[in-house]
Each structure stands twice: as C-alpha cells, then as structure tokens.
Amino acid sequence: MTGPAISVAMSVYNGERFLPEAIESVLDQTFSDFEFLIVDDGSGDATASILRDYEARDSRVRAIVRENRGLVASLNELLSCASAPIIARMDADDICRPERFDRQFAFLTNNPDHGVVGSWSEDIGEDGAPLFRTGDDHPLTHEDVLSAIAQGRHVICHPAAMFRREVVLSVGGYHAAFRHCEDYDLWLRLASVTKLANLPERLLRYRRYDGQVSTRHATEQQIGTAVAQLAWQERQAGRPDPTACLSHLPAIDELDALFGKEGISRRVGEQVALALIYSAAAMRGQGFDLLVQHLRDGGRRHGMWRTVLRLLRFGEPARALRLAMTLAAAPAR
C-alpha cells in the first residue's frame, strides 16, 4: 500500500477559538488523499480535546499532544513525522478554500522544477468578514519571487504554502534563530536550490486580528526579516552565511560583529524602526524604543511627526510626547 499524497502540517497553541473552522476547511478539500498532522504545542485551553474529537471522527487526522516547544520545533517535528512527499502548511486560525489542495498539487505535479507553490490570499477579520486589502499580492513566477526578495518584499504566505518535503529537508528545515519569521528565512534559502511560485487564486482566507503571532511579535519578526535579507545577500555573493548555525539572533548592536562589516547594525535599526511605525503593538513595546534610538542616532525623520499623531490614535499620549521631544532634540539627517 502506498502512503498519502500530501501531509498537512499544522501547529496549534491555545487555538480553540478558530481551530474547528480551520480543521473543517481542510477536511472539506476536494482533494482527499492526505494525512492531517496537528501538533498541540502545550496548549492550556480545549485544543487537545478538540483534536482528539476530530481524530476519532476522521482517520486522516493525527493529533500529537505534548508540552510546549515553540513553533519552529513543532514545524520541524511535523516534517519528520510526515509520510507524504508533499507538505501542505496550514495555520489554526485560517480557512482553506475547498479547491486549494487540488490546485497546488496539480501545479507541483506539472512543474517538477518547482519546490514550493503558494497562492494569493483573502484577508478576513476575527468574525470571518472580508477586510479591505492593501499592498501588492504575492509574486507569481520564480523570477518575480527573486525580484521580490531583492526588494525586501513578501514572497509566499506561509499557511498557503505547499512544498516538497525533501527539498525543505535538504536545506535544514526551519531554523530556530528566525523565530516568528522562520518561513521568510526558509523561502530565501530555498530560492537558491529550487523554484518558488504562487497561484493567482485566493485559495486561503487569512485571518488578521490583534492576538495573532505576527501582531504580538511584530518587532522580533521585523528584526529577523532584516537579518534574513542580509544572510541572503551574503549567500548570493558567495560568502558563508553567518546565521547558519545560530540558535538565536544577536541583538541589533551586535550585527556588525556577526557580519564582519561596519554599519550593519545602524542599517538594520533604521529598517526595523521605520517598518514598525504603523504597528500599535510594536509602538507600545520594544519597537518604540528602537524608533527613539534611531532618531537619537541621527536617523531619517521624514514623516515622524505623523507618527506622533499615530501614537495618540493608538492611545499612547506619553509616548507621543516623548517622540515629539526626541524629534525636537534629535539631529537632522
């Protein structure tokens, strides 16, 4: 007997709120030849009981309930446990369109030189209602993906990705150092060994809300993204990747030493600070301190007075005042 064509990989941590809808959207796929591997990463809510219930109802579901180890460890565990050559990623708060697996599996079957295929997505809110979408859609062809990487833009929506297991294992799977942007680092490493693409169909409904990981860890995510881009540039230039063996990323002010170049820390600090000014969570946390330090170092101030007003809208009058005082005192550049 042969195994399933696809292994669906999902990691859940305290995900009871949206979990049933996410699971149902996978079980309702028009493509049915898959196993559904779900790690409960030490949840303290009803996640485990929900998984056990689905496991009893559908033989394709396999629940792995254990202590908390973090998302990167969970994803690498899912890669190890998978019995299919193709992995379909899925998150516990999103919703698949019924034809998602059919479309992506057909693409990988017809394009053996491609190791990863994603799709466009539709943004939804907590209640599942569509949200107004801003920004560009993900790039379609591999050439478009390479251009997006060079410009520092998004490449593939992680929960919308389907990829060949062996090619991901060949580059070492997910790297622990890039927590909260582990997918972006993976796509950049894979772009050197295989082709990546996206389908111009909205095959995933991507949920946006205040409690999601990308919102709660926006600062760490932006720092990791900037470092992943630097590591990609090193590899493109034929130099060793200084992040390859790291278990965690160093502080921003240690990046000059890591990459052996002056000015890296300042450049990353500016990139991260300017990327976070629209995030309420970041401006209420470490991101605000990075912005203030960026300005004190003589960093770019264009548009920063609008950030003062934005802080007031975020309900942070004290930080708005502190930023205004910093702008008044900081040297212009």
UniProtKB/TrEMBL annotation:
Signal peptide: none annotated. Its EC number is 2.4.-.-. The keyword Glycosyltransferase applies. Residues 7-168 form the Glycosyltransferase 2-like domain. It comes from the Bacteria. It comes from Novosphingobium rhizovicinum. This is Glycosyltransferase. GO terms for molecular function: glycosyltransferase activity. The keyword Glycosyltransferase applies. Belongs to the glycosyltransferase 2 family. Keywords: Glycosyltransferase, Transferase.
